[in-house]
Write a structure and sequence with these properties.
Elements lengths: L7 E5 L3 H14 L5 E3 L5 H6 L2 E5 L3 H4 L7 E4 L5 H6 L7 E2 L4 H19 L2 H9 L15 E5 L3 H12 L3 E5 L9 E4 L1 H9 L4 E4 L13 H5 L5 E5 L8 H9 L3 E6 L19 E3 L9 H18 L13
Parallel strand pairs: 1-2, 1-3, 3-4, 4-5, 6-7, 6-9, 7-8, 9-10, 10-11, 11-12
Helix pairs in contact: 1-11, 5-7
Bound molecules: NADP nicotinamide-adenine-dinucleotide phosphate.
NADP nicotinamide-adenine-dinucleotide phosphate binds next to helix 7.
Length: about 325
């Protein structure tokens, strides 16, 4: 007779309907596991649970699980877990989903073309009833610099290359990828920025990247460069960006992420002519594919005790 696995705790701070949807999707992906929201677990079940599946969990809920061996985040970004669980430093597996990479790559391509083909300027001209062709800039003549060459940065770089853009990438450890020039370190960053027409931010938010894109960094870009921030709001110093836009140092910024979300209705960013605002939609999580990945990771753990790469609390991602 096989011994049933301990229950898996689902720990989220999501609205009830959203949590319910995740629960159903996860249960379908793992019919052999028993997944239960932590609030609905008995004291005995909580005492036995070795795995939690988490989405922005309340740390107090995780403390209800004394036997927890590791947790699987349903999100790719884990800065909040790193911050809130710094004292526990649990084993955290974050979501790495090629489907998320595809969605993000598509968004980076779409908004890179939006900038390279001057759509903000044509939209402004339309509002003025102005018929005026601007000089054509081909993708092949446009240099995109990506900050962060992880799962998402690499996916974006690949699609940008296919579309003909020149692509450079910056990461902590330099990458060796065909057709993409890799940079690392502070000197590498400066070198890359000097040859960047569109800067794309796909870094995790850590103590090192918090406020990284500031006046000093923006001033290293060629005048009129575009900025796309699809990572986290705090990586860009908003005041410095607005000054750089007003001074013409940055031509246009596409922002999908903000320090506070949703962006407050009274924020001056909404009406800034050189800012395009998106409501955190560049890389949506697909619950079905995410659940399949979580299921595969849990199955491997049950079978052989192995786990994919863990979040490194010292690095912060
Ligand atoms: P990842 O695989 O962990 O990649 C992170 C990349 O950033 C790596 O290349 C890493 O370098 C580099 N990096 C980290 N700290 C650095 C530093 N101090 N200096 C230089 N490079 C540094 O993460 P990911 O899955 O690509 O996701 C990136 C971020 O996207 C997430 O953390 C999340 O905040 C954001 N995100 C946004 C959305 C959205 O809808 N807007 C959706 C999903 C995720 P190494 O390669 O050397 O480690």
């Amino acid at each position: 007779m096989t011994v049933p696995h301990p229950m898996i705790a689902l720990v989220t701070r999501q609205a009830e309907a959203e949590e319910q949807h995740w629960l159903e999707t996860l249960r379908q992906a793992m019919p052999d596991e028993t997944i239960v929201p932590v609030a609905a677990m008995s004291a005995e079940a909580r005492a036995g649970a070795d795995i939690a599946i988490v989405a922005n969990p309340d740390p107090a809920d995780l403390r209800l699980l004394p036997n927890l061996q590791w947790m699987h985040s349903l999100w790719a970004g884990v800065e909040r877990l790193v911050l809130e669980l710094a004292d526990l430093q649990p084993k955290i597996v974050r979501l790495v989903d090629p489907r998320l990479g595809e969605a993000m790559a598509e968004a980076v391509l779409a908004w890179s073309l939006y900038l390279s083909r001057d759509m903000p300027a044509y939209a402004a001209q339309q509002r003025q009833g102005l018929w005026q062709p601007l000089p054509y800039r081909a993708a092949r003549d446009t240099r995109v610099g990506i900050l962060g060459m992880g799962a998402l940065g690499m996916a974006a770089a690949g699609l940008l290359r296919k579309a003909g853009f020149q692509v450079n990438g910056w990461s902590r450890r330099p990458k060796d990828v065909d057709g993409i020039t890799a940079f690392s370190g502070r000197d590498g960053l400066k070198q890359m920025l000097g040859q960047t027409d569109i800067l794309v931010c796909l870094l995790p938010l850590t103590t090192e990247t918090d406020g990284l894109v500031d006046q000093a960094l923006l001033s290293m870009l060629p005048r009129g460069a575009g900025l796309i921030n699809f990572a986290r709001g705090r990586i860009v110093v908003t005041g410095d960006l607005v000054e750089a836009l007003d001074a013409g140092q940055i031509g246009h910024a596409v922002l999908d992420v903000f320090e506070t979300e949703p962006l407050a209705p009274e924020s001056p960013l909404w009406s800034h002519q050189k800012i395009t605002i998106l409501p955190h939609i560049s890389g949506p999580t697909n619950p079905e594919t995410a659940a399949a990945i979580v299921a595969a990771n849990i199955a491997a753990y049950r079978c052989s005790g192995t786990l994919p790469d863990l979040v490194d609390f010292a690095r912060g991602y």
